[in-house]
Amino acid sequence: MEKKIYLYPMRDEAALKAKSPYVAHLSGALLKHFKIVNYGNNIKGGILDVTRYFFKANIFYFNWIENTSVPQICFFFLFFAFAKVFGKKVVWAHHNVHPHRNNGKLNRYLIKFLAKHANYVVLHTTESLPILQLKQDDKRVVYFFHPFFASAIGGLPNLPKEYDLLIWGNIRKSKGVDGFMQYLADNGLLNRYKINITGKFESEELYKRMSAAYGSETITINNKFISAEEMDMLHAKSRFVFFPYTGSSVLNSGALLTSLPKGIPVIGPNVGGFKEMGQLGFIATYNTPAEVLQYVDKPAEALLQNWGTMFPPYFEKHSWSDFGDYLNNKLK
Hints:
Structural class: alpha/beta
CATH superfamily of the largest domain: Glycogen Phosphorylase B
CATH topology of the largest domain: Rossmann fold
Strand order of the largest sheet: 2-1-3-4-5-6
Order of helices and strands: EHHEEHEHEHEEHEHEHEHEHEHHH
Organism: Mucilaginibacter pedocola
Protein name: Glycosyl transferase family 1 domain-containing protein
Largest sheet: 6 strands, parallel
Radius of gyration: 21 Å
Number of domains: 2
CATH class of the largest domain: Alpha Beta
CATH architecture of the largest domain: 3-Layer(aba) Sandwich
Shape: globular
């Protein structure tokens, strides 16, 4: 029987590639083996969109469903009951410890409900297992570390190092950048390290405040989107890539998955996918800002010993194509 899958959320193809890289890559991986019945069609009415495809799909695959509103969640429970009656399979991917938005009791309950009752639970880090109270040998668990976005590793130009730390990506309060810089300021260390902070700030107010508080000859702060070419240049000029994430919902990071294959030492928090990569020896992890500086004060090459020998074969087994093959084998 042909595997027909409904994928949530979904956008038109142009917006999908521009605004939803995870779903865009997931769609490409699934299309190798599945027919995505709603591919390229914008969602209409939130979760109610499933009614348009209920009898066209036998698998319903949800991402970030727990972020929706209470009325939408109530409808989802109704959909879930009908899905069981009609033999539809429900797949749910766990992306965050708790919902990014609408973090109410019903939203948190939905996470527990899906962890217990979904036909399949997709995990991109083993750190999800204790959070969801699941065991890896549970037949419903589909564990595959988050696929990498790059098609190859390394390839950076050989440039002189201009920065001790590169902090890049979307700059939000939850990312912990402001807190780390304040730690440096409180300890008289702002002029000790050369730091480049480049990314799109969540607000102009945050950008101006951080620029006024920390901008100097040693601290570069840019509020802009980064092109792929510029990203490579920034990595090549930096001794370390640093992720000062402090948000309580952190599990994985698209920025980590982009930086890790480039071959520049990465320092990240001891949580979620960062912790898993640290346990494998691919990155350095920290629990306190002081531990970050201990890494920075040492030669960067010390953090690349395991990366050079062990990361390439791991990378080769964790492409989006590999993920699609894995899903095809697991989702029956």
